[in-house]
Amino acid sequence: MQKTLTTTALATLLALGATAASAEIRIGASVSATGPAAFLGDPEAKTLEMLVEQINENGGINGEEIALTLYDDGGDPNKARTFATRLIEDDEVVAIIGGSTTGTSMSILSVSEDNEIPFISLAGAIEIIDPVKPFTFKTPHTDRMACQKIFEDMQKRQITTIGMISGTDGFGASMQAQCKDVVGEYGITVAADETYNPTDADMTTQLTKIRNTEGVQAVLNPGFGQGPSIVTRNYRQLAIDLPLYQSHGVASDGFIELAGAEAAEGVRLPGTALLIADQLGADDPQKPVVDAYKTAFEEKTGTSVGTFGGYAHDAFLILTDAITRAGSAEPQAIRDAIESTSGLAGTTGIYNMSAEDHLGLDLSAFRMLEIKGGEWTVVE
Amino acid sequence: MAELLQFLFSGVTVGAVYALVALGFTIIYNASDVVNFAQGEFVMLGGMLTFVCHAAGLPLPLAALIAIVVTSAIGVAMNKLAIEPARGAPVVSLIIITIGASIFIRGGAQLLFGKQIHSFPAFSGDTPLRIGGATILPQSLWVIGGAVVVFVGLWLFFTRTLTGRAVLATSNNRLAAQLVGINTGFVMTLSFALSAGIGALAGVLATPITLTSYDVGLAFALKGFAAAMLGGMGNPKGALAGGFLLGLIEALTAGYLSSQYKDAAAFVVILLVLFFMPQGLFGAKSTERV
Amino acid sequence: MKISAKSATLLVLVVLVALSPMLFPSGYYYRVGALIFVNAIAVTGIVILTGYAGQISLGHAGFAGIGAYACALAPVHLGLHPALALVLGAAISAVLAFLVGRPILRLKGYYLGVATLGFGILVSMVLNNERQLTGGPDGMEVPELGLRGLLRDAGIDLTNGQFWYFLCGIILILAAWLALNLFNSPTGRALRALHGSEVAARTVGVDVARLKLQAFVISAVYASVSGSLLALQNKFITPDVAGFMHSIEMVTMAVLGGVGSVLGAIFGAAVLTLLPQVLTVFAEYEQLVLGLVMMLVMIFLPQGLLPSILRKVRGKDE
Questions:
Q1: Fewer CB within 10 A of the end CB, N or C, for chain C?
Q2: Chains with 3 or more CB pairs under 8 A to chain B
């Protein structure tokens, strides 16, 4: 009895697998469109779908249409690995974009490396591309770079002692560790190191401890989701008048809205060109691409653009650029072409890949932003 | 001193939210011995629906009222469609049903409302009140007040009203309750409506502090469940005490020990309490029926 | 000829594991098969705990986490072979279950639920917070098991997917065999006859406390082995494996399939592992459908999917 049932189930799977065929250039994606990392994956998924639509309307690449197979791994590395296997073995894609989180990216890359399929990750951790793996690339600047950018700014303000309050989610914990790793190079000490759960409702306890720590001159909050908004509100509630730094995890207009313009006043964070599209100089090489993406995304989804959707945009841009230059959709050719990406302006920065650098961004990709009167402004 | 006071304020604020969720668990449990793991989704719906109505231009009190009424209706529907048909099922099955309901509601909310985080303005502004060098938001007082009012209301309901006693009687012995003329179907409907309504109220009161999105329910349900069990399931006094205790343990652990292990401390306390008092702090002794 | 339920169950399993690959159009199906088996191992443990001893656990993923991280950590820090690390993880889980089980198994119903929940959350919290050791929420890499290379040297060349499919399949059959032996033991029969009523069992002289503890320890070992296999197969592990949702998933698979029978629970594991794969086409509705399925099965097929289906089939035959 259950043999027939299992067979039915398998047959269903079979039928579903078969429908994915018959396209020209097959690209796969596995992102965390739901689950705890949906802040990352949701805009990424929407961005990819939108871009594929756009490119196909304009005649595809080299005359071939793109077929995107997109799976939602819910932020679960186990599912991500299954979907990576499915994309490669069953959907027969030539390249994979995805891995919204470090965990899912690490799962996908072990499959894609084994099968020699190029993979562009959308996650922050440096482990993904260091050491360099032949088929693995990534678009977001590393968390370490965000820390460096913040500490550079602190140095300029003569800040030498700080307190940190980090989310215990993957994003916050990873950045917390990276920041503590490099902080010494900037002559800054972390005098207080507190954490909160991403679902916590009140962080006044941790902030009170930081405030009462001797010598703290500024506070840094690595985290994403609602946590940083609550931290910012509590910060004002406690009337702490030290500079507050947030991370690129909340670099979107939604953050100002949730924290409230008043509470967010003076908050600094390392962001990308996306947030200040209207302030970019006409000669800025990122201006056209940022404007185009921002307009299209906001028109399509009705939500404001954020850094994370930008990562997916850039991954897709790098991939399509590579396929165009390679003039071929063979995985090996695509890989080689991605590695020779140079001077490609994305929303996050200008990409220059090489055999030693599978990220291709430097610190200049980040811009230190400050919230003034509910708007993003560039700190000079 | 000011530091301790600030920790206590934080603990009481969070504790009041837990207590409100725990109180919601109490009524359904009393009427039917079901622990409703979808209780957290009622909290989410309360906050989310208020946001949606408010964003659509309705004044905040009206938006909140609509949210509470709609959520109550969803609670009643859940009872009629999912709980009543499975009466007499073992505890595990009921857990799965209510978790299924919670996943279902969350999935629906995700489709209807999207995945954005939302909030709406605090009822009495954002200017913190200063007391002895510590600060507390006016909205925290709303949540604490809400928890206390709901507690008193439930206590009066269960001890002073005929309907409330009917609820307790239904829980003790459904058949006997029917025999003495209690409309047990009505009791069930009422308790789901009340539970869902209280959950929604928790969402309405807490959202300006905690913010809301389609997936906040699970965290509320877990903490509320833990608080209710700590206090002793089924007892409003236990729910209130359990909620505040849990919030205070978390805040004081974060303040004096480690913010990383504050939730761990809460669960260690729960395990210890259950070890010495298997029915929770205020739980009634029960005997197993053969 | 009449064959026992035990032999029938094992026969069905062996046939399924051995013959299903004939229907696989691509390597991806081996991966899904292996995942079903890994889940089924943990779920068989839940059958022992819930179906056999009548106890609830909302924290068994904690043991899966211990098994998984034993395979990630022991080879690096203790120089153990990953296969031995799996055994070590199982041993740690057993000892921990023994220590934790004694106090918390005195609790009943929901109180046991919250206590096991607390245990699971504590484990996942340690895995999340001890970043130096576990890599925190980002997870850590797990060393290669290395067995596939040995097989290749012995002349059996399997793809990675095939290797894990058959390895997990064989371990599942072993796990099911052990569970069935327990079911058919005298105490097992007595318990089933009494429908898990503790008071009744005690009056006929069953040492209920010992039995519950035994079931708890065995099911912990099952969960641990399942976690280890998952880690070794994925070569990467994150604390999600110990998370609350994973605990719930285990219980749901068992109850949905039919917590009273080993085969039923394995069937439940198969259905819930396949569901998200089938639903990718309607990814937006996945949660909605999953919740609906859970409620509908429990309401209309309270014995679980497989027993209810079997009963229907038999009813028609007669």
A1: N
A2: A, C
Q: Tokens at residue B113, please?
A: 């409302």
- 8-state DSSP, B118: B
Nearest to A138 by CA among A287, A338, A273: A338
User: CATH homologous superfamily of domain A2-142+290-363?
Assistant: Response regulator (3.40.50.2300)
Going by C-alpha positions, the residue among B221, B236, B224, B247 that lies closest to residue B283 is B236
pLDDT in tens, B136-146: 999 999 999 99
Residues of A in contact with B17 (CB under 8 A): 201
Contact call for B270 and C114, based on CB within 8 A: yes
Of C27, C137, C237, the CB nearest to A169: C137
Q: What is the rounded CA–CA span in Å between residue C31 and residue C39? A: 12
pLDDT band, residue C194 (cuts 50/70/90):
low
Count of alpha carbons within 13 Å of C74, Cβ hemisphere only?
23
CATH number of the C5-19+27-317 domain: 1.10.3470
Of the pLDDT bands very low, low, confident and very high (cuts 50, 70, 90), residue A224 is: confident
CB A161 within 8 A of CB A142: no
Interface A-C: count of C-beta contacts within 8 A: 129
pLDDT, position C2? 57
CB–CB contact B100 C298 (8 Å): yes
Q: Do the Cβ atoms of C28 and A110 come within 8 Å? A: no
Task: Check residue A1 and give its pLDDT.
Answer: 41
Contact across the interface for B270 and C106, Cβ inside 8 Å = no
Question: What residues of chain A have any CB closer than 8 angstroms to a CB in chain B?
Answer: 34-36, 38-39, 42, 168, 194-197, 199-202, 204-206, 208-209, 212, 225-226, 229-230, 233, 236-239, 254, 258, 260, 262-263, 303
3-state SS assignment for residue A342: coil
- Computed over every residue of chain B, the mean pLDDT equals 89
Expressed in percent and rounded to 5, the helix, strand and coil fractions of chain B are 75, 5, 25
For domain A143-277+366-378, give the fold. Rossmann fold (3.40.50)
Which of 1.10.287, 3.40.91, 1.10.3470, 1.25.40 would CATH assign to domain B7-276?
1.10.3470
Beta bridge partners of A161: A189
> Among the residues of chain A, which ranges form H helices?
2-19, 38-57, 77-85, 102-115, 143-156, 170-182, 204-211, 227-237, 253-259, 261-264, 287-301, 307-326, 331-339
Residues C272 and C252: beta-carbon distance below 8 Å: yes
The minimum CA-CA distance between B218 and chain C, rounded to whole Å, is: 10
Q: Predicted confidence band at A2 (pLDDT cuts at 50, 70, 90)?
A: very low
What is the percent of chain C with per-residue pLDDT over 90, rounded to a whole number?
52
Which residues does B contribute to its contact with C (CB < 8 Å)? 35, 82, 85-86, 89, 91-97, 99-108, 110-111, 218, 222, 225-226, 229, 233, 260-261, 263-264, 267-268, 270-271, 274-275, 278-280, 288, 290
Q: Calculate mean pLDDT across residues A33-60.
A: 91
Phi/psi of residue A350, nearest 5 degrees? -100, 120
Look at residue C148 in the predicted model and tell me its pLDDT: 86
Q: CATH 3.40.50.2300 spans which residues of chain A? A: 2-142+290-363, 143-277+366-378
